[in-house]
Amino acid sequence: MAGSLDSLEKCLERHVPAAELSEVKRILYGSQARKLDLPPTAISAAVERDFDLQGYRFEAEPEQLRHPRVVRVGLIQNKIPLPTDALVAEQVAALHKRIEEIVEVAAMCGVNVVCFQEAWTMPFAFCTRERLPWTEFAESAEDGPTTRFCQKLAKKHNMVVVSPVLERDGVHGATLWNTAVVISNSGIVLGKSRKNHIPRIGDFNESTYYMEGNLGHPVFQTPFGRIGVNICYGRHHPLNWLMYSINGAEIIFNPSATIGTLSESMWPIEARNAAIANHCFTCAINRVGTLHFKLGFISHEYYINAFTSGDGGKAHKDLGYFYGSSYVAAPDGSRTPGLSRTQDGLLVVEMDLNLSRQVSDKWNFKMTGRYEMYAKELAKAIQPDFIPNIIKE
Ligand SMILES: NC(=O)NCCC(=O)O
């Protein structure tokens, strides 16, 4: 159960003998991420506001011709503060309030780019397959109340804000999308990126609500580097990461909502592998919130009406526990520890973007990639008359 393990790293620290711990950590996490000193005011604010605050930094070698390109990103993971049957407007307002107080601490920590979890303004209600009230959480990406709220935050704190929401596309028949809005530190909406891969697994019945994104792999030029947003289930698709990287992304955010029984063993691998394969930084963010309803603990993400997964299992009223564990991976394969598995959190990570080219010059994955060969073979493979290249005796 999620509640019995606060974080994998804390568990290792408790149980691995001190003499072996640093070697264990080097093997598991690589050697780069060092602790980042955060202001005492931020640390005490995080304690007061009851969230996990951690800070790390990735360094690069000094170069003769380029200055360091040091930026700070903030990853925010959170529970829903109100039950799923509270009024829609009240749920959204409570989430805005919670995020605002965490973003204030991010500002104290000098964060330049902040990213929230997938569909952060709502419970992850797609499991229910019901329409109302969940579709009421959808908003215009360009000028919905959440985007306007984030514009204020961005301007006030001089921070780029990546805000993944359920989008209501008024121009195209009021359709819904799973979208990340990117707001510049000036407060201007830079653009949006849509979720390209929609899960059809277990209770993740998202294809009931929206289709695969149609915006490709946009990358946003900000004063703090070029950023892309690969939403949740897209992290299982290496070519999805690749395309953001090919478009020049230096940092790829992966705002997610995923649960323990389904994906927790995959979580530490996928975004980290993408950072290695694409010579970039990746930022994996997962929500927190668990059921424990039947055990008498606080319930989050618990629904009034039971639903099924079409797998022969019993009808149930929750998805399971969202395990948090948000982390950042660097192009050299190192990664930060994860945030808590059970608590709201802010992960502040300082990174020198020069590291990406340094690792690229060492490992040469971009140079040795055989993109033309893959493009040709893929172009053939998607044809209806494709014959797989299998050689037989
Ligand atoms: N939100 C979402 O796409 N979840 C699917 C499950 C997963 O990818 O782990």
UniProtKB/TrEMBL annotation:
Q: Where in the cell is it found?
A: Cytoplasm
- Key words of the record: Cytoplasm, Hydrolase, Phosphoprotein
Name the enzyme group at the top EC level: hydrolase
Assign the protein's first listed, main location to one coarse class. Answer: cytoplasm
Q: Which GO BP terms sit in this record?
A: beta-alanine biosynthetic process via 3-ureidopropionate; CMP catabolic process; dCMP catabolic process; dUMP catabolic process; protein homotetramerization; pyrimidine nucleoside catabolic process; UMP catabolic process
Q: Where is the CN hydrolase domain?
A: 71-353
One Pfam family name is CN_hydrolase
InterPro entries in UniProt: Aliph_Amidase/BUP, C-N_Hydrolase, C-N_Hydrolase_sf
- Cite the CDD domains for this sequence: ML_beta-AS
Lineage top rank: taxon: Eukaryota
Q: Which GO terms describe its cellular component?
A: cytosol
Pathway(s) of this molecule: Amino-acid biosynthesis; beta-alanine biosynthesis
Its EC number is 3.5.1.6
Which Gene Ontology terms cover its molecular function?
beta-ureidopropionase activity; protein homodimerization activity
Q: Which family does it belong to?
A: Belongs to the carbon-nitrogen hydrolase superfamily. BUP family.
Described by its record, this protein's role is as follows: Catalyzes a late step in pyrimidine degradation. Converts N-carbamoyl-beta-alanine (3-ureidopropanoate) into beta-alanine, ammonia and carbon dioxide. Likewise, converts N-carbamoyl-beta-aminoisobutyrate (3-ureidoisobutyrate) into beta-aminoisobutyrate, ammonia and carbon dioxide.
Subunit structure as annotated in this protein's UniProt entry: Homodimer, homotetramer, homooctamer; can also form higher homooligomers.
The name under which this protein is listed is Beta-ureidopropionase
Q: Which source organism?
A: Sphenodon punctatus
